[in-house]
């Protein structure tokens, strides 16, 4: 039987996991800055640079699956601490790479930092009751601000010391935090329950993945998180190419996107608790469709053949307008990231690591696929704004699928004369993942309305 943690224990766990995740995320996106210098040194194409930026995202995404399972089985304290120490060693070894293939291999090890997300989600969710999990996970998810730390601080380290020493500084800080986490973090409240139960097989832990809903959540996260990571990596290069900025200025402007897309995740968690995750997802996708449509429009010259001669005008987005739209996009994506993960511990309280790991893996794969695709689209089309065209298609598809699924669930509820809720699946018991084998504890979700 689980025990109810005190508020001080909850805040301690939340603070340690959030700070650790912030450092891991800063490491995970390090190639957004040092990759530009490496590309200059090795004369890389945009496609090659996109692959280098995306490779850590691939490892971070795939690793979330087994890291989530390990966290469900062994708890977050040791998994998180060992993960940070292992990643720090990989970042340090990266500095010995001298060729492009060696850098790609090193980037695979750096990507382990991205797996920290699902470890922290499972560890943090175990400390909080369901009605506060959205807010808690929103605060934890604000560790995405680590990408802004890299975009803002890494350019200055890069100019002062070079990319090798910049990576060594990152490795040292992360290793220190790994030791601190192991020493100061406590076992989560579900540790005793895990120890008293028979260890589940891999197939048992993967049982919820048979539900289509899990994969729908994964598509949502492919956009709100995967596209966030992709833009965090791609924006400095985009700004240098389109607006001819220097790397310091480009990094600081990119931070104007990554900071709201990270910190406002806290607000997204609170709004999901207060108004419901479904409504927050509608806000997110609606605003994102509008922003990506406007951002996808390339500079265009128009000629109208008038009565008294040609009339010429140009549509071109200024830098201030671009920054405003990016800030807005980042804000709404941050709300969506929190709303997606609000669902998981409510629907799958004993499978947070497994389900969250798969959703996080698919979302993270967006961070791998999209930067690579952005570079390829640049090389193929010669249009910088092609990256936003692709994002527009993805978010429009997610919005359509979400709306269809919600209307379908509501028709089931109407037919059964059941009360509709903001998360319609919760009002339909047969749509909820079975928990009949689970012993009730003080952290369990309340009965379905």
TrEMBL record:
Topological relation to the membrane, as annotated: Multi-pass membrane protein
PROSITE patterns found in the cross-reference section: MFS
Compartments (UniProt record): Membrane
Classification via SUPFAM superfamilies: MFS general substrate transporter
Domain Major facilitator superfamily (MFS) profile stretches: 10-410
Entry annotated with the keyword Transmembrane helix: yes
Transmembrane segments: 12-36, 48-67, 79-97, 103-125, 137-161, 167-185, 219-243, 249-268, 280-297, 317-335, 347-370, 382-401
Descriptive protein name: Nitrate/nitrite transporter
Biological source species: Marinobacter nitratireducens
């Amino acid at each position: 039987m689980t025990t109810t943690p005190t508020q001080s224990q909850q805040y301690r766990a939340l603070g340690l996991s959030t700070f650790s995740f912030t450092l891991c995320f800063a490491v995970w996106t390090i190639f957004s800055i040092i990759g530009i210098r490496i590309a200059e040194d090795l004369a890389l194409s945009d496609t090659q640079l996109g692959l280098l930026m995306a490779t850590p995202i691939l490892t971070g995404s795939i690793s979330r699956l087994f890291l989530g399972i390990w966290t469900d089985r062994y708890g977050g304290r040791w998994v998180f601490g060992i993960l940070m120490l292992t990643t720090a060693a990989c970042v340090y070894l990266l500095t010995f790479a001298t060729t492009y293939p060696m850098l790609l291999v090193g980037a695979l090890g750096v990507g382990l930092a991205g797996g920290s997300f699902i470890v922290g989600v499972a560890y943090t969710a175990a400390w909080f009751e369901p009605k506060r999990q959205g807010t808690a996970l929103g605060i934890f998810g604000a560790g995405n601000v680590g990408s802004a730390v890299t975009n803002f601080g890494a350019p200055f380290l890069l100019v002062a010391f070079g990319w090798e020493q910049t990576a060594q500084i990152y490795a040292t800080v992360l290793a220190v935090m790994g030791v601190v986490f192991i020493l100061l973090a406590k076992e989560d409240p579900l540790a005793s329950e895990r120890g008293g139960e028979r260890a589940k097989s891999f197939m048992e832990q993967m049982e919820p993945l048979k539900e289509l809903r899990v994969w729908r959540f994964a598509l949502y996260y492919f956009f709100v998180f995967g596209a966030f990571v992709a833009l965090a990596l791609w924006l400095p290069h985009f700004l240098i190419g389109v607006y001819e900025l220097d790397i310091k200025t480009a990094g600081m402007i990119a931070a104007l996107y990554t900071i709201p897309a990270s910190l406002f995740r806290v607000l997204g968690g609170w709004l999901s608790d207060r108004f419901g995750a479904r409504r927050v997802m509608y806000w997110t996708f609606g605003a994102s469709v509008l922003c990506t449509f406007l951002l996808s429009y390339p500079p265009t010259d128009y000629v109208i053949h008038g009565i008294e001669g040609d009339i010429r005008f140009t549509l071109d987005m200024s830098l201030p307008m671009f920054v405003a739209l990016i800030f807005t996009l980042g804000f709404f994506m941050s709300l969506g990231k929190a709303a997606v993960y609000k669902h998981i511990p409510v629907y799958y309280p004993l499978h947070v690591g497994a389900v969250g790991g798969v959703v996080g893996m698919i979302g993270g794969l967006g961070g791998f696929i999209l930067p690579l695709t952005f570079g390829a689209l640049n090389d193929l089309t010669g249009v910088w704004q092609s990256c936003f065209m692709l994002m527009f298609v993805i978010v429009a598809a997610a919005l359509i699928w979400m709306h269809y699924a919600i209307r379908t669930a509501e028709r089931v509820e109407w037919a059964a004369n059941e009360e509709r809720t903001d998360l319609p699946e919760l009002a339909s018991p047969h749509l909820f993942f079975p928990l009949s084998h689970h012993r009730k504890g003080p952290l369990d979700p309340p009965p379905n309305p």
